[in-house]
Every structure is written in C-alpha cells, then in structure tokens.
Amino acid sequence: MTKKLWFQVGTAILFTLLIIFMFMQVKSIFSPFMIIAQAIFMPLLLGGVLFYLSRPLQKWLESKKFPRWASIISVFIVIGLLIWGFIALVSPVLTKQVNALVNNTPEMVEEIEDFINYTISQREKIGELPKALQTTLDSASGKIETIAVSAGGFIVKFIQNVFQGVLLLVLVPFFLVYMLKDHEKFVPFITQFFKGEKKIFIRKTLSDIDDTLRSYVQGQLFVSFLVGVMLFIGYTAIGLEYALLLALFGMIMNVIPFLGPYISLVPALIIALIQEPKLAIYVAIIMLVAQQIESNFITPNVMGKSLDIHPLTVITIILAAGNIAGLMGIILGVPTYAVVKAILKNIYAHREGIKDTATKSV
Predict the structure, then answer these.
(1) What are phi and psi of 206, to 5 degrees?
(2) DSSP classification of residue 64
(3) What is the three-class DSSP state of 128?
(4) How far apart are CA 323 and CA 333, in angstroms?
(5) What is the DSSP letter of 140?
(6) Any idea what the Cα angle at residue 164 is, between residues 160 and 166, rounded to 5°?
(7) Which SS3 state, helix, strand or coil, does residue 1 take?
C-alpha cells in the first residue's frame, strides 16, 4: 500500500500540514528573520522584475562583445533615460491631472450625493423599489461624507507609504547589479550539492522556474503597457477628462490577471458619468475593444501558452491569495502558482522517468 500514489500524496499533505502547524507554534522564534525578510522583500521583488526586463538587453549587448561590466552600466543608463523621459514628458501632465482630480473631488462627491438623493426622491413616482435597494439608497447618502473624509486620510497614508517606498528603492539598484552580474552562478551553486540524476533534475527544475518567471514578467508588463496605450488613445479620442491618469491606472491594474481590467473600468465610468453620461457608453466600448485585442491578439503572441492556466483557476487563485495576503497576494498569486506548477510537473516527470527505468531494468 505504501507504494500507491494516493498514499504517498496523502502522506505528503499530512506532513506538510504538520510542518505548518509546528511552525505556527514556534513562529515567535522566527520573528527577527521575518522582519528582515519583510524589509528586503519589496526591493528584492522590484530588483527581480527589473532583472527580467533588462536581461534581454544585457544578452544582446554581450552578444556584441560588450564585457559584463559594460553591459550592466549600459542597462542602468537605459533605465535612467527611461525614468528621465517619463519625468520629462509624462510627469507634468500626470501631475496636472492628479491635482485637478484632487481639487475636483469635493464637487464630484457632491454630484454623486445629489444623484443619490434625486433617486431617493423619485421613489414615489417610479413605484415601490425592492427593500434591499431602498435600504442601500437610504444609507448611501449618509456614507458619502464619511467616504470623503476617509479618502483624505487614505491619501495621507498613501503619501507616507510612497515616501517609505522611495527609501526602500535605494536597495533596488544593489539587488539589480548583483543579479545582472552573478545570475549565471546561481544554478551551479545550487546543483553543486547534488550528483547524477538529482543534479540533472534540479538543473531542469530551476531552468523551468526561470523560464516561467521570465515569460510572466516580460509578457505581463509588456501586455499591460500596450493596454495602457490603447486606453489612453481611446480616452483621449472621446475627450474624457484625466485620460492619462485613468490609462495609467488601467495599465497598472492590468497586471492583476482577469480582475484587473474590471477594477480599472470603475473610476473611468464614474468620471465619464459625471462629465457626460453618454461618455460612459464609449468608455465601456473602449475597454471592451482593448480587452478583446489584448486577449485574442496581444497575449497569445507575446506570452503564448507559457503559463497555460485555466481562467477558473486564475480566479480561484486571486480570491484565495487576496484573502491571505491582500493586494500583494493578488499580484503574486498567479506567478507563484505557475512556479509551483512547474516544480510539480518536473517532480512528476522525474518520478515517471524513474518508474520507466525500473520497469526496463526488470
């Protein structure tokens, strides 16, 4: 019975749960390590993203006989030029739109409140509404002011987090330098502790993990950039206010698989309804067209089927990861699942190879 697959899988799950339980019992011992891990997590994550984005450029430069140090310097020069270009060309317009949005927020909140009050006042003319809808409308008006006050506190907290993030970004260049300089030494360092088939298995697994992360980071960010460009062109064409800000928000939200586009649609619809109600229809059409182009043409050609994850699985992962780790879990849930899937596929293939070898030997 111990050789049955279901028994081995069940035993592995039980041992995993036991390890997690024991870890939770003594987690206070590891709190100093957790603090250190949390401090370096975000710079390490951003450094890894920049590494996968800049590695193609580094490979191309080194294929042109650039030494390693020169390719690293060139990568940093390109990144610096891109940041300078964003600050010089995009930042002034973006800052102007953000300031305008902040200044117009009280007026927008008042218009939303007036709309809700008007809807409530029209109940007698349109007949009795469902009880749940009546309750929602009655309470919404009173909550608008509370939401506006909370938004002010959220903005202050957001600015504080941005300031802390800028301080943490000081570490990002150091991580990026060492990743670009020594990334080829990682696999040999890990595999030096193994021999024979295990060494081949570890090397293959690490290679698949690297391919998965590279495909996801490069593909997802490039696709999000193209979606942002399409949204900006569409919003500008219909004369929507804050077009650049909304397009940039849509580009960032598109990093979240499946749910991101729907999240980015909400503020665009609200602003369109306040500016001119018929614009909301155009905004919905623009988002629909952009998503159809992205899902049917851009993503298949950029990312292919490198991840090969069913949409239902993506939704489940996002919901579970969001409940466990919040926004960071939503962003990292799908690539984490893809990495785990690559590891399990290699383990299964390795087991099948051992089984075939044993059968042939017999």
Answers:
(1) -65, -35
(2) T
(3) coil
(4) 11
(5) H
(6) 115
(7) coil
